[in-house]
Design brief:
The chain is mainly β. It folds into 2 domains: 96 residues, Immunoglobulin-like, CATH 2.60.40; 166 residues, Glucose Permease (Domain IIA) (Distorted Sandwich), CATH 2.70.70. The chain has 3 helices and 19 strands. The strands form 4 sheets. Strands 11, 12, 13, 14, 15, 16, 17, 18 and 19 form a 9-stranded antiparallel sheet that branches. The radius of gyration is 20 Å and the shape is globular. It starts with a helix and ends in a 7-residue tail after the last strand.
Length: 272
């Protein structure tokens, strides 16, 4: 009887129908620009502190210590280095990033959204500092989740990483996932966290940033309504806002962004 039960549970696990309580949820790994590297760290009795460039990296304990490293879209293929610190030693660890070619996407927007005025540029500079502060939070008291439900119902586009051409002029690559959805559709927090920034931004429109802890921050852009305030704690499933078409858009949708150690990574790697 016991053997039959064990075999039955094994079949459920093998087919993804059951996850043991001790299993650690991890994002999908893809060592490319915009991807995620999961790096096993040397043994340590205390939690290692890891940096990739100047940003601190999430470290979790599975059977071994693991660094969950977000790889910026601008990363050149080749060898990369993370720096690990413990109470007794410091080490440089290396990993390789493969090349990935993203598609080019041509869009037509209002002329002002392709070529902002001097006044707009001053506003954008101020907003950029606010966005940077929101995306560089590192809160140790929060425990991040790395497998997330989709924040709004819809079929995600493959827009992440696409080279954007607005009104015939090349601009920065797209650093998030666009999810088309009806105007006013509910946007739900995919995990527990703290709202670290909200507001109306020139390009992003009405936007919410949620700090989930240990360098993981999510952002939600182009909302028609914001339902949360700065400093508010949210739980998974709380409605944080409604889908809209504010900012630089061609129609109602949610721009869903994921920042990991300040790298805007492909959100698909964290979606269940």
């Amino acid at each position: 009887m016991l053997r039959s039960l064990i075999f039955f549970i094994f079949l459920l696990i093998a087919n993804g129908l059951f996850t043991p309580a001790f299993a650690l949820d991890l994002p999908k790994e893809n060592r490319v620009p915009g991807g995620i590297a999961i790096i096993e760290l040397p043994e340590s009795k205390t939690t290692p502190i890891v940096y990739y460039g100047k940003y601190r990296v999430t470290v979790v304990k599975d059977q071994h210590w693991l660094a969950i490293v977000g790889i910026p879209l601008a990363t050149q293929p080749g060898e990369q280095t993370i720096h690990m610190q413990t109470d007794h030693s410091e080490n440089d660890l290396h990993f390789n990033v493969a090349d990935k070619q993203y598609r080019t996407q041509a869009l037509t927007v209002a002329p002002r959204m392709a070529n902002p005025s001097k006044q707009d540029l001053r506003r954008i500079a101020i907003e950029t500092k606010r966005i940077e502060a929101a995306l560089t939070h590192y809160t140790e008291s929060l425990q991040p989740a790395f497998l997330l439900p989709q924040p709004v119902i819809g079929i995600p586009s493959d827009s992440y990483g696409s080279r954007r051409v607005f009104n015939g002029e090349a601009r920065n690559p797209h650093s998030g996932m666009d999810i088309p959805a009806p105007m006013g559709a509910a946007i739900k927090a995919p995990a527990n966290g703290i709202v670290v920034e909200t507001g109306n931004f020139f390009f992003n429109g009405n936007t919410v940033f949620i700090d989930h802890g240990h360098g993981l921050t999510t952002m939600y852009c182009h909302l028609s309504k914001i339902n949360v305030k700065m400093g508010q704690r949210v739980k998974q499933g709380d409605v944080i806002g409604l889908v809209g078409a504010t900012g630089r858009v061609t129609g109602p949708h949610l721009h869903f962004g994921v920042s990991l150690n300040r790298a805007m990574v492909d959100p698909a790697l964290l979606l269940r």
